[in-house]
Amino acid sequence: MAEWRKSSRSANAGNCVEVAIGVGVRDSKAPTAHVEVGAEAWVAFLAEVARAR
């Protein structure tokens, strides 16, 4: 079973993106579906987010 985590910035809001390591990304409003994201793509995504700050 994957351990899904919400962003610390989402607080208790219902409109959240959740992430599970080794699984992917999902919308908290539709938890039965998710998009698989490989480790390399995830690292690239996080680097781009950090760069854009």
From TrEMBL:
* InterPro entries for this protein: DUF397
Q: Which residues form the DUF397 domain?
A: 2-49
* Xref: Pfam families: DUF397
- This one is known as DUF397 domain-containing protein
Q: Which organism is it from?
A: Lentzea alba
